[in-house]
Amino acid sequence: MNLNMTLAGELIAFIVFVMFCMKFVWPPIIGAIEARQKTIADGLAASDRAAKDLELAQEKATAQLKEAKSQAAEILEAAKKRETQIVEEAAAKAQAEKEKILAAGHAEIETERNQAKEELRQQVAVLAVAGAEKILERSIDAAAHSDILDKLVAEL
Amino acid sequence: MSSGAEITSQEYIKHHLTNLSVGEGFMAVHIDTLGWSVFLGLVFIMLFRSVAKNATTGVPGKLQCAVEMIVGFVDDNVKSTFHGHNPVIAPLALTIFVWVFLMNAMDWVPVDLIPTIAQQIAGLFGVAPHDVYIKSVPTTDPNMTFALALGVFALIIYYSIKVKGIGGFIKELTTQPFGHWSLYPINFILEMVTLLARPLSLALRLFGNLYAGELIFLLIATIGLFQLPVHFLWAAFHILIIPLQAFIFMMLTILYLSLAHEDH
């Protein structure tokens, strides 16, 4: 063992190094470490929160999608119903129109037939008068005997 | 072996274990111990200071990562052992750990490398190789280890008195382990032994381990060519010894200061 003034020198060096370390080395490094730890902890917490939010949003989206699907199905159903209704209505309308047109046709035909009948009758009257004139070989006043002729026409 | 066959193994070992010294007796100063320890301390301080100056709270560089790993390791140990609030303990522990580690690490440098370089340089100034002494592992010098231990011891006394008061400190030294007043002197002797054993064991443990390690390196260096594998094995073994001794010194410092803060 050879203790001497080296010890004092080393002691001074030791004290100086420790004080320097205490003032200029330890605080910035440990400060940086702790600040980073805090940043990381905050980041992890934020990511946790974000994951939870995402889960919630996904749940919400799923629910909304389901609702939208059911709504779409409802709308489709209603549209189909309406479609058949329209088709039925149109068919009914067409049927009615057809019947109306048919009826009108029939009526027209009837009127024309009556008209033709009337004309034929008149002509028959004229022919009959002419025939009678010829048969009697004398002039018969058509006006004087029109009541008889009319009776004849009505009998035809 | 540095200078051939004209010196014996004994002389060789003795030469390597002698400090480069200035002055006589108690006033002597070991230039090599002081120089290497201050150099290594400056390496520690400047490296860590450069990181501290550029410390970013964002993404750290690789050097900052390495330094933060050491700082974090020391901080964890301090926090797990010392439960008060004291801004001195953690930087003290860091300084002790890194400084002692670097000084111990000089043990890995081949035993003849630094003395041979020193002899070559001294030879340029006309100094005979035999007169050049360099002991490059500062912790193999009891002056170094006792300086560290006394620094810690001073802090133990300072904090004991600061936390407990002089009365409390004296009370702690006298009233336990035996509670009766007539046994107080015996208590005092026992407690003084405990108190004084702390710096003594701190200093001697570090010195003993490193001195013995260095001595074995020197013995291995005397056995000729066969030294190479043996030297390698012993150096590999020191991968365990060197950080372990630095760690033990740091942990015991924290523990002793934590005990000094405890008020019974």
Describe this protein with a few key phrases.
heterodimer, A: 156 residues, B: mainly alpha, two-stranded antiparallel ribbon, globular, ATP synthesis (chain B), F0_ATP_A_sf (chain B), hydrogen ion transport (chain B), transmembrane helix (chain B)
Short description:
Chain A contains two helices and no strands. Chain A is mostly helical and 156 residues long. The model of chain A has no long low-confidence stretch (mean pLDDT 90).
Q: Return Rg of chain A in Å.
A: 61 Å
The geometry of chain B reads as globular
Model regions low in confidence, pLDDT < 50 over at least 5 residues of chain B: 1-5
Proportion of residues in β-strands of chain A: under 5%
Mean pLDDT of chain A: 90
Largest sheet of chain A: none
Overall mean confidence score, pLDDT of chain B: 88
Number of domains of chain A: 1
Q: Enumerate the spans of chain A where pLDDT stays under 50 for 5 or more consecutive residues.
A: none
Task: Report on this structure.
The complex is a heterodimer of chains A (156) and B (264). Chain A is mainly α. Chain A has one domain (7-155). Chain A contains 2 helices and no strands. In chain A, helix 1 crosses helix 2 (146-155). Chain A is rod-shaped and about 190 Å long. The model of chain A has no long low-confidence stretch (mean pLDDT 90). Chain B has 264 residues and is mostly helical. Chain B has helices spanning 9-16, 31-53, 62-81, 89-105, 113-124, 142-174, 184-221, 227-261; strands at residues 21-22, 29-30. In chain B, a hairpin with a 6-residue loop joins strand 1 (21-22) and strand 2 (29-30). In chain B, helix 2 packs across helix 4, helix 3 (62-81) crosses helix 4 (89-105) and helix 6 runs parallel beside helix 8. Chain B is globular. The termini of chain B are far apart. The chains are: A mainly alpha (156), B mainly alpha (264). The interface between A and B is large, with 32 and 49 residues. Chain A: It is a single-pass membrane protein. Chain A: GO terms for molecular function: proton-transporting ATP synthase activity, rotational mechanism; proton-transporting ATPase activity, rotational mechanism. Chain A: It is found in: Cell membrane; Endomembrane system. Chain A: This is ATP synthase subunit b.
